[in-house]
Structures are given as C-alpha cells and as structure tokens.
Amino acid sequence: MALRSVSRLLVNSQRCVLFTASRSQKTAAASPWEKSGEKKQVKTPKAQFNWRDALDLEGLLTEEEIMIRDSFRTYCQEKLMPRILMANRDEVFHREIVSEMGELGVLGPTIKGYGCAGTSYVAYGLIAREVERVDSGYRSVMSVQSSLVMHPINAYGTEEQKEKYLPRLARGEILGCFGLTEPNHGSDPGGMETRAKYNPSSRTFTLTGSKTWITNSPVADICVVWAKCEDGKVRGFLLERGMKGLSTPKIEGKFSLRASATGMIIMDEVEVPEENLLPKVSGLAGPFGCLNNARYGIAWGALGAAEFCFHAARQYTLDRIQFGVPLARNQLIQKKMADMLTEIAIGLQSCVQLGRLIDEKKAAPEMISMLKRNSCGKALDIARQARDMLGGNGIADEYHIIRHVMNLEAVNTYEGTHDIHALILGRAITGLQSFTVDK
Amino acid sequence: CFAPFLCLRPPQIRVKPDRTGVVTDGVKHSMNPFCEIAVEEAVKLKEKKLVKEVVAVSCGPQQVQETIRTALAMGADRGIHVEVSGKDYETLGPLQVSKIFAALAKKEQADLIILGKQAIDDDCNQTGQMTAALLDWPQGTFASEVTLEADKLKVVREIDGGLETIKIKLPAVVTADLRLNTPRYATLPNIMKAKKKKIVNVKPADLGVDVSSRLEVLKVDEPPQRQSGVKVETVHDLVEKLKEAGRI
C-alpha cells in the first residue's frame, strides 16, 4: 500500500506538489514563531479544480494503470478516431482493428496466461472508456471478444479449449461472438428456444435455433452459443464457422453501432462435437457470469462516450458566437454542462470503486447492474443534451455527437435494459421479484 | 540513452510573470518525441539481435522516472535516473547533460548512444553533438536510417540539400530525426513487464560531473502580438504601401 501511494505521488507530482508541500509543512518541527502554545498557521496552497477530472480519478490509479490508459488513449485517438466518421456513415466494420487491439494486448486483458496481459479490472475499465470515447460500436467489438468470448472459455472451458482458442483470440487472429438473445427471448433468456440434443452414437450435440442481435456474428470465426439441453439446463457450446447448418446473416438497416457488424446466428441441426461443450458451468449462471463481466466494462465505457460529448459541446459553445457572445456565456448552457460534469465525475468514482471490489473478489452482480444502468442512462442523457447544444450542427455526423446519441440507444438497451437492471435492484432491495406476473 | 524528459506543448504555454522562463506547473510532461523515436530505434536493433541491451537514461527530478518507465514499456531493458532537481534542474542544459552522458557511457561501456536530435522545449540540437565531442566518438546526426554493418554504422542523414550517407565506426553517437521510424504504442503486457525492470538512481556528483550552469537566462518574452493587416483597394495602393513601409 505504501509503495502504491508513493508511486501515485511520483506520477501526479505536478498536481501533488501542492499536497506534498502542505503535508511537509504540517508535520514540520516546532518553528521559532511558536510561543507558549500559540501556533503560527502556515498557509496551505489551494487545491485547483480541474473540470477534466473533477474528483481526481487520476489519484486513485496506479502508475501502471495510468501508463496503460495513456498508451491506449493515444492509439484510439490516432488510429481509431480517423476511421470512425466514414465507418459509421457507410456502415463498414474494420476487422483490422481487432488485430490492432490484439497487438496492443488489450483483448481479454484481465485473463492470466494464454497470451493475455493479466491486468486489473480497473485497467480493463480504463481501456473500455478510451475505446468508447471514440465509438460504442468499437467498444462493443472489444467487449464481446474479451468478456463474452474469451471470458467464458477461460472460466468454463477445458484446458484444451483454452489452449486452442485463447491465444488466437487474444491476438485478434480470430474473432468471436456470443449467442444468447433470440428473436422471441431478449430480457428472458431463460425462455430460449434453441435446443441442443445429445447423440451418443457420434458423441456430438445437434443444435437447432436462432439467435439475433449478435455483435460480430456476420464475420465471426467462432460463436459461443447458449442452448437448452434435454435436461432443461442451458449450456454453452463453441461453434466454428464452416460447420454445416450454421449461417450468420447480417442485420440491415441499423441506426446504431453502425461501425460494428451485427447479425443473427442461424443453426439448422448443426453437429457440434462434445469436446466443444463448455463443461464447467450449467444453467443461466454461465451466460450471466459473462454478461456481468461485459456490463462492468460498459459502465466505464458509456462514461467515455459521455465525456467526449461533454468536451465537444463545451468547445463548440465556447467557439460559437451568437448575439455577440459565445453560447457558453449563457446560463442555460452552463447549467447543462454543470449537470454533465457532475454525473461523469460521480460515475467514474463509482466505477473505480467497483473495479477495485472486483479485483478483491468482493463484488456482487447487483453492484454491476447498478453502475451499468447508471452510466448508460446518464450517458444517453448527456449525449442528447450535447446534441441539443450544438443546434443544427448537432445532427451532422462530422461533429460526432449524433453518432454517440444513436449508439447509446443500443448501449442503454443491450446487456440488460435500463428497466431490467432496475428490477434486479428492486429484487435486491425488497426481496420481491417483479420480472414475472406469478409469485 | 536519450535526452531529459520535458514539457509537452499544452494548448497554452505561458511565460512566468518574472520572465525567467515558462510556466511548467500543472503542465503534463512526457517523453520528447524525437527521443521516443530514438528509443524505438534502439528497441528495434535489439529485436534484430544486433545489440545486447538497451539502457534508458534520463536526467531530472523524480517525475522523470515515469518517462523512463515508458521507455521500459517500449522494450528497453533497464533504466538509469540521474537525479537533478530544483534550481539545478532549472538551469540544466545540453553541456551538463552531455557531460553526464559521456561519463555514463564510459561507466556502462556503451557502444552506441542514440538520442533525439533536439528537445522540443528548447530546440537546442546540441546534446548529441557535445556528447560525441566529449567522448571523441564519431556522430551520425539527423538520422533517418541506421544500418549496422559489422563494426561500422551506416547512417543516412537528413540535411538541407537532401540526404547524406555516411559510415562511422563504433562506438558512436546517433541522433534521431523524424523519419527514422514510427514509435510503437507500448503494449499492455510490456507495460506490466516494465514494472519489474530496474531503474537505478545516480547523482551527477557520483559521475564526477558539475551541473552548475555557465549560462544565465536574462529574460524570456512571448513572441510579439501579431498586428492586424491593412486592406487596400488596388494594386497601385499595394505598391505605394509597400514603398511607404520601406519594404521595396
């Protein structure tokens, strides 16, 4: 602990100069002015308010986390930001970014071994925030690969499966997708209709059913599909492109997450060898474990998008002159920015705390639900307000904000809608479930 | 080896009220871009197995360790932090730094010193050249390409007239120019490995170097405010105005 705080001081010394100075003055030996109990108060330098980091998130990060964030932020701004305008406009998914991110080692970053970095959950959050600052679609691709494909294989797979898939997924050599949601079963995955029938003679499972709204599926190499077995329990299966009966059509006409490819997973009696079953979990705990992992990243990520919108709106209203003064001179504008600043600062503090709890294995799923819901809801609101502040220019994709508005609609909805997370929390608060009409 | 870490130009650089320098408090400091290119080149040489070890060096206060860590995350093997702080740091210039580098090069028995061609805060473009002179080593400055050929270094230099190719014997000093390479992003695994790499602390006195400056900064001023231009109606008026201003 002591070492960590020292390294924080080193890293933040520019800002911490004030703190270290005040600390040494307070513990200074008796000065010549002290006479009979009368103490001369030495003035401590005033702490500066920084609107970019209102509650000093920086001070809560380790030196390593700061380096990871800074290095990855540079990559995102230099390599992802230039692509996103046209990628979103023309609905093109740049598959190369997965390989690029793989090279940087940011895929499956919390996994230990198998070519993964093995870093903290706070670092994972910081990574998600930087990608989503550029685009939620890019962050969705990263989340799916890390939390919804690599994580289940790591947590529920055999050693052979881990050796076979994880290093290649980490490098971005192969792309995965996660098949849980169905056309008729979104918020109630337990009601899924996809079936897996075991064939003892061939030691395979036959999977039939369809999944929809699957990020990456049109171009994925492997699919982690959740299906109900004959014993009524949901289990996870690894399907590979090329298996007979497996098709992944693209969903057209999307006005959200356009820079990421979304589609269906259609299984018409796909024969899956039993070695492809994820053996270490059964029941909905499996998919939910993955979703919680992804939701945590989203809680950070959504705030990255919100930060972009806030900063962009601030700059625009400082530059735009109407009635002889910058828009930022107006009270209504300032009030909106004050609200944005507050929600982002508070949201990030809660995310750091959650990340630390997860690292200490002290986090409950409801905590993650609470922050996913909060970050997404607040970010959507911030993006909409920012769009409004840009006036007519706010609807042009060149200003980027409208793209975040569109994207955050999906982000607020997937991985558990805003309302569903409210019910999860409501059940935890009251002990009474309100998902279904029966008791 | 590379030049000290320094100010990355923030949106607004301001001159201190006492005009002795620029405000550095609260300004984010990071590695000099040309030095980043130097580190990248060194790491590339190591990856090609042409050099055995890359040592990253920086002179300055405690914060400098952050910059050395970045070099370690890019692939350097170990770091040396030459501690210079307070008043000494404010007056630290190319001459003292090159003396430090020369002393370290001898101590570490270095075969090659690569640094950025110049620092973007003072734009001196002197440290590399001075270091080579102090060591009596050949130098390849403004390098846009470096190739190791047996015990000699082929360096393509960017000069005003174009490109000059020279061959210099090792040990030598090379300074990196913009087009030498594109520095890599530090990958996550490497950032984490960097934690375990050693950074050794030394003081200039340990190396027998006196860091007192022989230069005194008299004043630092902002560039003059740009005056607004004048619009003229005809070419005739333009010529008249230029004559008036003594320009033609």
TrEMBL record, chain A:
Q: Looking at the keywords, is Signal present?
A: no
Catalysis performed (reactions)? glutaryl-CoA + oxidized [electron-transfer flavoprotein] + 2 H(+) = (2E)-butenoyl-CoA + reduced [electron-transfer flavoprotein] + CO2
Keyword entries, A-Z: FAD, Flavoprotein, Mitochondrion, Oxidoreductase, Transit peptide
Q: Entry's CDD domains? A: GCD
Q: Name one GO cellular component term.
A: mitochondrial inner membrane
Its EC number(s): 1.3.8.6
| Keyword Oxidoreductase appears in the UniProt entry | yes
Question: Which GO molecular-function terms appear in the entry?
Answer: fatty-acyl-CoA binding; flavin adenine dinucleotide binding; glutaryl-CoA dehydrogenase activity
One GO biological process term is: fatty acid beta-oxidation using acyl-CoA dehydrogenase
- Which pathway does it take part in? Amino-acid metabolism; tryptophan metabolism; Amino-acid metabolism; lysine degradation
> Where would I find the Acyl-CoA dehydrogenase/oxidase N-terminal domain in this sequence?
62-173
Q: Pfam families per the record? A: Acyl-CoA_dh_1, Acyl-CoA_dh_M, Acyl-CoA_dh_N
Acyl-CoA oxidase/dehydrogenase middle domain mapped to chain residues: 177-270
Domain Acyl-CoA dehydrogenase/oxidase C-terminal, which positions? 289-429
Q: What class does this enzyme belong to in the EC scheme?
A: oxidoreductase
SUPFAM superfamilies attached here?
Acyl-CoA dehydrogenase C-terminal domain-like (SSF47203), Acyl-CoA dehydrogenase NM domain-like (SSF56645)
Q: Which cofactor does it need?
A: FAD
TM region positions: none
Q: Where in the cell is it found?
A: Mitochondrion matrix
Report the InterPro entries cross-referenced here. Acyl-CoA_DH_CS (IPR006089), Acyl-CoA_Oxase/DH_mid-dom (IPR006091), Acyl-CoA_Oxase/DH_mid-dom_sf (IPR046373), AcylCo_DH-like_C (IPR036250), AcylCo_DH/oxidase_C (IPR009075), AcylCoA_DH/ox_N (IPR013786), AcylCoA_DH/ox_N_sf (IPR037069), AcylCoA_DH/oxidase_NM_dom_sf (IPR009100)
Q: Which family does it belong to?
A: Belongs to the acyl-CoA dehydrogenase family.
Q: What is this protein called?
A: Glutaryl-CoA dehydrogenase, mitochondrial
Question: Which source organism does the UniProt entry give?
Answer: Cyprinus carpio carpio
UniProtKB/TrEMBL annotation, chain B:
Name one process (GO BP) from the record. fatty acid beta-oxidation using acyl-CoA dehydrogenase
CDD domains, sorted: ETF_beta (cd01714)
Per the record's keyword annotation, is Mitochondrion included, yes or no? yes
Top-level taxon of the source organism: Eukaryota
What keywords sit in the KW lines? Electron transport, Mitochondrion, Transport
Q: Which GO cellular component terms, listed alphabetically, does the Swiss-Prot or TrEMBL entry include?
A: electron transfer flavoprotein complex; mitochondrial matrix
Per the database record, which ranges form the Electron transfer flavoprotein alpha/beta-subunit N-terminal domain? 19-211
Quaternary structure, per UniProt, is: Heterodimer of an alpha and a beta subunit.
Its biological purpose: Heterodimeric electron transfer flavoprotein that accepts electrons from several mitochondrial dehydrogenases, including acyl-CoA dehydrogenases, glutaryl-CoA and sarcosine dehydrogenase. It transfers the electrons to the main mitochondrial respiratory chain via ETF-ubiquinone oxidoreductase. Required for normal mitochondrial fatty acid oxidation and normal amino acid metabolism. ETFB binds an AMP molecule that probably has a purely structural role. The electron transfer flavoprotein serves as a specific electron acceptor for several dehydrogenases, including five acyl-CoA dehydrogenases, glutaryl-CoA and sarcosine dehydrogenase. It transfers the electrons to the main mitochondrial respiratory chain via ETF-ubiquinone oxidoreductase (ETF dehydrogenase).
* The name this protein goes by in its record: Electron transfer flavoprotein subunit beta
Record lineage = Eukaryota, Metazoa, Chordata, Craniata, Vertebrata
